[in-house]
Amino acid sequence: TMNAGVHTSVVVTDFTQGSLSPTENPLDVAISGSGFFTVETENGERYTRDGSFSLNADGYIVTKDGHMVLGENGYIQINGNDIRIDEKGNIYSGGELIDRLKLVDFQDYSALMKEGSNLYTIISEEWMGQEKAFESTIKQGFIEGSNVNAVKEMTDMITMLRSYEANQRLIRAHDELLEKAVNEVGRL
């Protein structure tokens, strides 16, 4: 019997930290360790590790998709250029404390579901309250890169391609044997 082919059983997100690269942009922030920034979308609060932020026309800190970045006191508005974000996520402008980034971490990352655009949401209400204390540090002027090892993934892809080709040859040989058996049985 022939099976129905190859199926993906489970897709798992690897939340391991990627490498941090300096950008010199004061609104680029990276989390060194585990955890997430909290942003407000049209669908409610979402979580992201993408700290490539900017100011919108009204002076609010937003993501590259325009979602409001949340602080402990709500939306974060900055009136000035001298922006400093310390390792605890406190945001200063002109030496004055403005707010603190709303940073969260979770006990169980399986409670998070990908939503696209580097955003995650909690799967269901039963997972609410899974937050744990945020113990990582914030690095201002850095951005987190991918945590994927491109060389390893390329070699894995080549290995998979070779396996696919070997299976394809096996199916072709089996098909030729069946064709030969059907044609020669008919002559007897």
Topology of this structure?
Layout: E1 20-22, E2 29-32, E3 36-41, E4 44-48, E5 54-55, E6 61-62, E7 68-71, E8 74-75, E9 83-85, E10 90-93, E11 96-100, E12 103-106, E13 112-116, E14 119-122, E15 131-132, E16 137-140, E17 142-144, H1 150-187
Antiparallel strand pairs: 1-17, 2-16, 3-4, 3-7, 3-12, 5-6, 7-8, 9-10, 10-11, 12-15, 13-14
Number of domains: 2
| C-alpha-based Rg, rounded | 25 Å
Largest sheet: 6 strands, antiparallel
Distance between the termini: 26 Å
Low-confidence stretches: none
The geometry reads as: elongated
Strand content is 25-35%
Order of helices and strands: EEEEEEEEEEEEEEEEEH
Total E-strand runs: 17
Task: Report the oligomer.
Answer: single chain
Look at the structure and give the mean pLDDT. 89
Structural class: alpha+beta
Helix content: 10-25%
Question: Treating each run of at least 4 consecutive H or I residues as one helix, how many helices?
Answer: 1
Question: How would you describe what is shown here?
Answer:
This protein has 1 helix and 17 strands. The protein has 2 domains: 20-144, no CATH class; 149-188. The model has no long low-confidence stretch (mean pLDDT 89). The longest helix has 38 residues, at 150-187. It has 188 residues and is of the alpha+beta class. The protein is elongated. The strands form 6 sheets. Strands 3, 4, 7, 8, 12 and 15 form a 6-stranded antiparallel β-sheet that branches.
